[in-house]
Amino acid sequence: MNKKKRKAKYLLIPALFLTAGAIFAALFLPGYFIRSGVNAELGTVSAVPTAYYSGPSEAVVRNASRQLTEEQRLSLIYGEWESTISPATPAERTLSEFEAVHLPFPIVSEYQQWYTWNAASYKAVDTTFETYAAVFWKCTFTRYDGKESLVYFITEGGTLLDPEKLPEELIQ
Questions:
Q1: Alpha-carbon distance 125 to 138, whole Å?
Q2: Theoretical Cys-Cys bridge with 123: which of 55, 88, 94, 96, CB 3.0 to 4.6 Å?
Q3: 88 near 155, Cβ under 8 Å?
Q4: Strand 114-126 to 133-143 pairing
């Protein structure tokens, strides 16, 4: 019996050491790895990927743009605010092409003399935060013979724009 008890003691002692080692590792190793990872990254600065800066959402831009006065919209369009001009999508504008062409304009009585019309929408977006946008239209009327055309720029609020203040590529 003594041999069996001795043999059991010899097996029990290593099993106890293995169990104590596993408990020690389970309690202290995660904290050690976390602390070493934090210390490794604590003093370093790295560039943030551009995917993290998605910019303002369409809802934010639409809400902020509604709060602009007509004068502020004109400042955006004319470039008095730093802005970029690009074509507007149908979701960004509030008027259809037909509604834009038929906004109140001094040549209403002359509409009958023009054969066809075309309207293109543009938006001016501030370059700082890309939060404010102003939509305007380039409306082109062409006579029936195609020799003469009338081009004017108008905001969605019905304000006529001065073509001399607009970028050259829009006027052509």
A1: 17
A2: 88
A3: no
A4: antiparallel
Contact yes or no for 122/100 (Cβ under 8 A): no
Single-letter amino acid, residue 84: T
Would the pTM count as exceeding 0.90?
no
The one-character DSSP state at 82 is -
d(CA 150, CA 119): 12
pLDDT for position 109: 46
Alpha carbon of 107 to those of 63, 98, 112, 116, 159: distances in Å?
A: 33, 16, 10, 15, 14
79 φψ region: left (φ > 0), alpha (ψ -120 to 50), beta (else): left
How far is the C-alpha of 125 from the C-alpha of 82, rounded, in Å? 8
Mean pLDDT across the stretch 139-161? 83
Q: Write the single-letter amino acid at 2.
A: N
CA atoms within 13 A on the CB side of 54: 4
End-to-end CA distance of the chain: give it in Å, rounded.
Answer: 108
How far is residue 167's CA from residue 76's CA, in Å, rounded to a whole number?
12
Distance of CA 65 to the CA centre of its chain: 14
Q: Determine the Cα–Cα distance for residues 79 and 126; give it in Å rounded to an integer.
A: 9
The answer to whether 161 touches 134, Cβ cutoff 8 Å, is no
Neighbours of 120 (CB within 10 A): 15
